[in-house]
């Protein structure tokens, strides 16, 4: 078993740390935020993620995981140091690598024995080479430090499961020594491992995410055409899915992809191409389609209603997808301000995301409009003139078509997630607009 340090306790770092502890390694998670460290020590997860808190408590009690702000003591005798800090988008779309650089410098100043530094954060191709050079330049002790790439493929909402039962582990190394350590670290997981060089590993991460983003944008593009020519996107997707070369996943048309990964990683790869004098036309198209998709239903509803001024608007779902409290790049963040600007009286429901949303749009008067956060779907729908569905939470999917008819003042529903059957909504007397399907 190995002694591991993990830099950064966001989705990537914390989940990796907990899962390495779960398979028996000795893990220390490092974060600069003292309050967060104390919270984690007390057994509370700073993020909402299935099974995470239970595994944190179990492995902390077993002495396999600890949390600290003292990076020096965590790094000095680690066999491997994983970097899982953020690489946020910069105004030009490129990835901001300043957090990685800070950690690299701290590692260089702290390590006192040979150690493998593993970059888990999503970084542009070539970054690992630079990180290695950077560490060498600042290294204080006479020890061997190499850098390896080990991109993360977990999805929010199923992060622990995706890590423990990953479909593949990608390791990018430049030496047998580094490859052996990574193989050893992942050995107890019993997962398929693809060993490549560092630059290929870095590219696999972007190519995979951007391919999935492309798949979604392609389906959204086809959905928009379906509406114009009288086809049904769900039937189309079903018909396509039987072809194993296409597959059945990620064919759901909707109000565009959000989250911290696809929007950022598509722009970062497009940017990398540009820097290398190449235009990545397919990815650019995926970004364009996604930008138009997010406010598609708002635009449709605007035509139907002329104005939202003074209307009671039910908003169901605020997060970028179910199973998370994350709002990054969520469609709600684009649509709610447009509705408020029009003077809408919004009643918003989200089982876990409302608190975060209220930090951006506090309850009460909001510009020309007003927003109230409610604790159940019924309260949101009661007396509403129009309803928008932005996230397919189980609690939203459980609402029967008849409920819209009986609870709303006007049963007018704009569903960005195609939750309902068009026929059932029609039979229940609901005016139902969705994506890629005739009303
Ligand atoms: C995504 C990838 O799925 C992970 O493999 C990857 O590791 C992760 O990014 C990352 O790079 O960290 P995540 O952003 O958590 O994971 O969420 P997804 O489940 O992929 O959903 C992203 C967005 O696409 C959501 O807004 C979702 O609603 C949308 N989506 C997904 C669709 O609109 N249609 C679909 O068919 C699938």
TrEMBL record:
Reaction it catalyzes: UDP-alpha-D-glucose + 2 NAD(+) + H2O = UDP-alpha-D-glucuronate + 2 NADH + 3 H(+)
Enzyme class: oxidoreductase
Database matches in SUPFAM superfamilies: 6-phosphogluconate dehydrogenase C-terminal domain-like, NAD(P)-binding Rossmann-fold domains, UDP-glucose/GDP-mannose dehydrogenase C-terminal domain
Keyword terms of this UniProt record: NAD, Oxidoreductase
Pathway: Nucleotide-sugar biosynthesis; UDP-alpha-D-glucuronate biosynthesis; UDP-alpha-D-glucuronate from UDP-alpha-D-glucose: step 1/1
Record: residues binding NAD(+): 31, 36, 87, 122, 264, 328
Source taxon at top rank: Bacteria
Protein family: Belongs to the UDP-glucose/GDP-mannose dehydrogenase family.
Name the UniProt record assigns to this protein: UDP-glucose 6-dehydrogenase
